[in-house]
């Protein structure tokens, strides 16, 4: 049975890194990737909106649902002024396809912390992906003292529980994988740990519900309780601690907006946003997506770092049942990074997108 | 006319760093501090709430309003579970006293960035201090699919304009102070710059109003337009960029919650939360407040870093018209830090709170 992948480059460097990821997928040898791959090119994005008045066409959603086993999304540009009728297509995609968790692994053998020391980071951020301020229920009011606007932030038991389940099950899965490594190669020595991020000292009701629900997932599952540790961290302290002692985190679970901010911060620790992949995960579909944006300033120059997109493609394979193919890509990328020779300008090098992509393909 | 300062240590290490700040204020020689100082001890905090059922007593508010010219607030502990009737006293204080901007200078001669290089940071964060998610209008609903909760996030033209005005006027003020320094000592070479933080690609209405309003403060003032540069930064990218190139920021203005997160992140860059002061500023009152929390794990051990509180006391003096006294404190602190000998454990030293405080007093 072939594996069909929807490709949605969208804007800016999305149009360079998604083709790069495709090239790597096509270079996979058949011993690690037994299924035939096929690709479907799909539209979305702010530029598409400017031409056609819609950022996420229904055709794209229909094709994803009827023809694809998963998809890769590039990046989307942000309008520099309010544009009537525009709504972010990646936010829409997550909601429409019920991709309820955004899984963001942040890994580096030697990340420089804010204290200048090098530490090993191996952190997995699970970002709730469907609600919080991202429900986009906003209203503008003409008040007596001028205009004001209200946005609603929604936190539900249902969504918090799904995010919590994902966090604890991934913590166990990571632990199982670590046990297979020789002790010297394990970046995390102790029991798996889940850090619950919130701001319940201010948002006692919404973040209170988030925190209680995630905790109840833990309390209600004897296996989690027996094998995983939990801790809580206020979001402001989380950003602080992440930069002081990033090696202290294993799995981190956060409501949507905090997760967005934390994952960009974590990317700074590992050297570049151009390295960090993510997977938007639902029960029946997955969309790989580099954490970086559309970077209009460097778009079209063949200098964008394709690694985040390539790793996102590997995450897609992992979640669709092709673990060996995923592993082959992760290893090939690690080898290219380890040589330190072929790197794009964001990492201080002079290589092009194409050169990095070809180097990865050669390592497969 | 004497200067009367309310002291609200509140919880944890607040009870150690506020007395330390008082000690420094009392050590000011009369040539830099012409006015007599008097102090009023005031209650608030989570521990106070546990005993008396109220976190911010009306007596404290009344005393601030009738007897004090300004105040110092220590830190407040967060309940580890939802506690009925409890509401953060610092959030209440900001609202009750209409302290509409939280001014957080983040300064370091040589901060280690995420890339391990040392860079000079001299950033001023202006955090809107009265609204956003901090209005605490939350509601819990028993829905068909389980419980859910809604919090309201309020952004008004009125509050955004006040925060914007503060940002631009501080940018000019900083520029004027820099012009008095010899060129070699200026950490910022170009025109003053204000970075507007938002997330209008998702929150087009609320953050749209924020951004348009702050921009309109700029557009409407010929002096700002002639002398200050502006740029915008999405909050997630802001955290990323702050860690990659912190020297790129002069004044940063942000809605309440983003400002909270960014300032803790910036504190990580300068070595310790224990160094970063803030001032909660209104048109007629100011409350100095260290950015750090109550740190229950180290409370009562005489090892908390008093510098953030001492610098907050200097900010209080600056804003109540005692600029020379403020400068004397800033310089004394810088001298103690520059020797690198007397430092608390958060900075890698072994000194006590009292030793650091005495060292600062000696330099006055
Ligand atoms: C483009 C934007 C809407 C998006 C988000 O905030 O989720 C991006 O920052 C991300 O992290 O995928
Ligand atoms: C204690 C808490 C309510 C407070 C805030 O979020 O404002 C603190 O983090 C701060 O930055 O002063």
UniProtKB/TrEMBL annotation, chains A, B:
<protein>
    <submittedName>
        <fullName>Homoisocitrate dehydrogenase</fullName>
        <ecNumber>1.1.1.87</ecNumber>
    </submittedName>
</protein>
<dbReference type="GO" id="GO:0009085">
    <property type="term" value="P:lysine biosynthetic process"/>
</dbReference>
<dbReference type="InterPro" id="IPR019818">
    <property type="entry name" value="IsoCit/isopropylmalate_DH_CS"/>
</dbReference>
<dbReference type="GO" id="GO:0006099">
    <property type="term" value="P:tricarboxylic acid cycle"/>
</dbReference>
<feature type="domain" description="Isopropylmalate dehydrogenase-like">
    <location>
        <begin position="4"/>
        <end position="360"/>
    </location>
</feature>
<dbReference type="GO" id="GO:0005739">
    <property type="term" value="C:mitochondrion"/>
</dbReference>
<keyword id="KW-0560">Oxidoreductase</keyword>
<dbReference type="GO" id="GO:0051287">
    <property type="term" value="F:NAD binding"/>
</dbReference>
<dbReference type="Pfam" id="PF00180">
    <property type="entry name" value="Iso_dh"/>
</dbReference>
<dbReference type="InterPro" id="IPR024084">
    <property type="entry name" value="IsoPropMal-DH-like_dom"/>
</dbReference>
<dbReference type="GO" id="GO:0047046">
    <property type="term" value="F:homoisocitrate dehydrogenase activity"/>
</dbReference>
<dbReference type="GO" id="GO:0004449">
    <property type="term" value="F:isocitrate dehydrogenase (NAD+) activity"/>
</dbReference>
<dbReference type="GO" id="GO:0000287">
    <property type="term" value="F:magnesium ion binding"/>
</dbReference>
<dbReference type="GO" id="GO:0006102">
    <property type="term" value="P:isocitrate metabolic process"/>
</dbReference>
<comment type="similarity">
    <text>Belongs to the isocitrate and isopropylmalate dehydrogenases family.</text>
</comment>
